[in-house]
Amino acid sequence: MTGVQRGPGRARQGTIYRAGVFGHHPSVPTDAASLERRALRAMSPVARAYVAGGAGEGATMRANREAFDRWRVVPRMLHGVTSRDLSTSVLGTELRAPLLLAPVGAGCLVASDSDVLIARGAAAADVPYVFSNQGCNPLEETAAAMGSTPFWQQLYWSTDEALVDSMIGRAEAAGARALVVTIDTTMLGWRPQDLNLGSLPFARGMGIAQYTSDPRFRALVAERLAAASGPRAKVEVTVGAVRTLLTMSRTHPGDFRENLRSPEPRAAVETFLDIYSNPALSWSHLATLRQRTSIPVLLKGILHPDDARRAFDEGVDGVIVSNHGGRQVDRSVASLDALVAVRAAVGPDPVVLLDSGIRTGADLFVALALGADACLLGRPHIYGLALDGADGVRQVVENVIAELDLTMGLVGIDSIAAITRDLLVPVV
Questions:
Q1: Residues 182 and 264 reside in one and the same domain
Q2: Does residue 317 lie within any of the structural domains?
Q3: Which helix (H) or strand (E) holds 226?
Q4: What's the CATH code of the domain at 351?
Q5: CA atoms within 13 A on the CB side of 177
Q6: Terminus-to-terminus CA distance in the chain, angstroms?
């Protein structure tokens, strides 16, 4: 008989229970519902709308959770499993557990220096972070905060091809292990919670730090300013306009007072809104990636099996099944349901990840059993950020990994590869 091992699940439980003896409770709730509820209370109305809102009437967001409810885990008993190995590898990136932090834009709505704080939390938990293309800190700063923990870089395909190349080159130079091209946001979906507030963070200069720190983008802004002639158009002076000017000036690189007097922050926002995403994005654009980068490329936003097949035929290294957390198309297929269809279509070998709907370690277990090689965790880590900064991010990650470990132990599984479909039954 082997000795009883102490995995991350029991270690996390022990940390919390020992603190409880002295009357200390976790600063971040360990259940998904309380985590979301407390985090949303801590956010401003604008942040709540952006982070928790979805497309249309929210049917896709609900579908993402309902898809998990259609599956049940079947534990096995008397298996004698006392230790688990949660480690795995995806496209050369070694993972402590099959989990990465998803890119979430405009995190500075929740906390200043959001991307750096998320990176510190990810590094403390030893999980990779997919840097947001719509981040609030330049990717170089965020990469420094990751230390030796690997990271991937998200890319939104701009209408300016030179900017695409510049973003890719910066990601490679900073040490990104993979490029995640988000393909489902060539236009913003209909998001009533933001629309009802008239709130788009990017229009206020929030979430565009990857652009204002980019030499090609700055050149485009300079061209815009040089092309402007004559007096500036008169701007209606309102309390909202003054607040927007202050936010633009605060988030734009350089001195705050100089930015207040300069037309550059507004020109940067206008340039961003003109070029940030390409509505004409097609397979012909993606076919150029192999000549533009040497790091692995994944497509994020795949939902149809035929698109998954086409992606691998075109030489993509991996796909991320995702409906953008329910933020783009209302009444879309749930990501977990799409995962089942995509895995059946492409077979067991290609790299397939899941994004959208993951909230707990048990969710992660179900997704792995249904064919995901790893999963991306989105809103929950932002909720942790809202409650306790970098350490809040760390705690959320540790809780998810702990529950995955305990689920594996209670089911009788000793490795990620052993989490298979026969451990689940569908709800009928």
A1: no
A2: yes
A3: helix 215-227
A4: 3.20.20.70
A5: 18
A6: 39
3-state DSSP assignment of residue 13? helix
- The Cα–Cα gap between 163 and 160 comes to 5
Q: Could you read off the pLDDT of 113-155 as tens digits, one per residue? A: 999 999 999 999 999 999 999 999 999 999 999 999 999 999 9
Going by C-alpha positions, the residue among 281, 279, 296 that lies closest to residue 168 is 296
* 385 plus 415 within the same structural domain: yes
**314 lies in some domain:** yes
Q: How far is residue 289's CA from residue 287's CA, in Å, rounded to a whole number?
A: 6
Q: In terms of domains, do 243 and 163 share one?
A: no
289 and 271, same domain (yes or no): no
Domain assignment present for residue 325? The answer is yes
Q: Which amino acid is at 80?
A: G
> For residue 259, what is the enclosing H or E element?
helix 256-261
Please count the other Cβ atoms lying within 10 Å of the Cβ belonging to residue 68: 19
Shared domain for 142 and 220, answered yes or no, is: no
* Catalytic positions, written as ranges: 324
Let me know if residue 119 belongs to a domain.
yes
> According to DSSP H, which parts of 43-160 are helical?
45-52, 59-69, 114-125, 139-146
pLDDT for 230 equals 60
Which helix H or strand E contains 154, and what residues bound it? strand 151-155
List C-alpha distances in Å: 82 to 5, 88, 326, 402, 409. Answer: 6, 19, 38, 15, 7
Q: Do 247 and 382 lie in a common domain?
A: no
CB count within 10 Å of CB 341 equals 17
Same domain, 164 and 57: yes
Both tokens assigned to 221: 């802004």
Tell me the two tokens of residue 287.
Answer: 């076919």
User: Of the candidates 123, 119, 88, which has an alpha carbon nearest to the alpha carbon of residue 104?
Assistant: 119
Number of domains in the chain: 2
Predicted confidence (pLDDT) per residue in 353-363, tens digit: 999 999 999 99
Residue 315 has pLDDT above 90, yes or no: yes
Rg, the chain, Cα only? 22
216 and 120 fall within a common domain: no
Residue among 419, 51, 16 at smallest CA distance from 207: 51
Query: What residue numbers bound the domain in which 41 lies?
Result: 28-193+278-426
